[in-house]
């Protein structure tokens, strides 16, 4: 058990919820960001987790807004203590072939999926450095490794996220701060539920495991990387994709 503090951006989504539960079960004080508490019924979400025995806290923050992240970091650290573990998980899709993609869809995905990682990390890193401890876990995607139809924006953001991880890992290594990426494959969430059925069937046919992944299969890898004992794992990208994409 631990008494460290973990911040999970977009922790109330499909994968995020399992990450929050997993970390809370290990003793972390967990705080999730959401964009709009009312629209996302964050109180209902919190109650559901509570009923399962998980005390998870939340804070409103648009992670694509740098200044909002500064205010959020101050609030979270003031209320719960210094953030030891940061899971940059908030992500959206705005899929379209590039010849049909609006500039807004490009900007939104880059800002929410990639720039957000800078925005939140930048506002927490000074304290991590001065305390000599940090675990930063960036949630990327198999589609950042392979590219995917309709996802020039998403694939670029997710590939960029691992570049961010690798540079951050080198910078933090002598300060007790690690940065790693987890790259999920196709996981059962509302995001993948939105894929047109015939496309989903084509994708599933390519997954050697023969099934979609479960959110808890991502959460346990996040928890593993978050542990104090994982200090020498730094700059890695851990795929969790049912062998959909294999590489060195
Ligand atoms: N594999 C093979 N062919 C594909 C394909 C795919 N993944 N996606 C689209 N195509 C093909 C279609 O079969 C179609 O072929 P035909 O013209 O021969 O019929 C052609 O491309 C055009 O497709 P659409 O008619 O669907 O064109 P559209 O403009 O209406 O939509 C699209 C295009 C937005 C790419 C849509 O097909 C789509 O949403 N595809 C799913 C994209 C996807 O996989 N997103 C992943 C979301 S989950 C996620 O991102 C989580 C994660 O990290 C893994």
CATH superfamily: NAD(P)-binding Rossmann-like Domain
Q: Portion of residues in helices?
A: 40-55%
Could you tell me the CATH topology label: Rossmann fold
Mean pLDDT, all residues: 98
According to CATH, what is the class?
A: Alpha Beta
Quaternary form: single chain
Strand order in the largest sheet: 3-2-1-4-5-6-7
Structural class by sheet pairing and helices = alpha/beta
Number of domains: 1
Globally, the shape reads globular
CATH architecture: 3-Layer(aba) Sandwich
* Terminal Cα span: 33 Å
Please describe the biggest sheet, giving its number of strands, its sense, and whether it closes into a barrel.
7 strands, parallel
Instruction: Provide the β-strand percentage band.
Output: 5-15%
Strand runs, count: 7
Rg, please?
Answer: 17 Å
Provide the succession of SSEs. Answer: EHEHEHEHEHHEHHHE
Enumerate the distinct ligands.
acetoacetyl-coenzyme A
Specify the number of helices: 9
Write the layout of secondary structure elements.
Elements: E1 5-8, H1 14-25, E2 29-34, H2 42-51, E3 56-60, H3 66-80, E4 85-88, H4 103-131, E5 134-139, H5 142-146, H6 152-172, E6 177-184, H7 190-193, H8 197-205, H9 215-226, E7 237-240
Parallel strand pairs: 1-2, 1-4, 2-3, 4-5, 5-6, 6-7
Helix pairs in contact: 1-9, 3-4, 4-6
Bound molecules: acetoacetyl-coenzyme A.
Acetoacetyl-coenzyme A binds at residues 93, 95-97, 100, 141-143, 148-151, 154, 184, 186, 191-192, 195-196, 199, 202-203.
Structure summary:
Helix 1 packs across helix 9 (215-226) and helix 3 packs parallel to helix 4 (103-131). This protein has helices spanning 14-25, 42-51, 66-80, 103-131, 142-146, 152-172, 190-193, 197-205, 215-226; strands at residues 5-8, 29-34, 56-60, 85-88, 134-139, 177-184, 237-240.
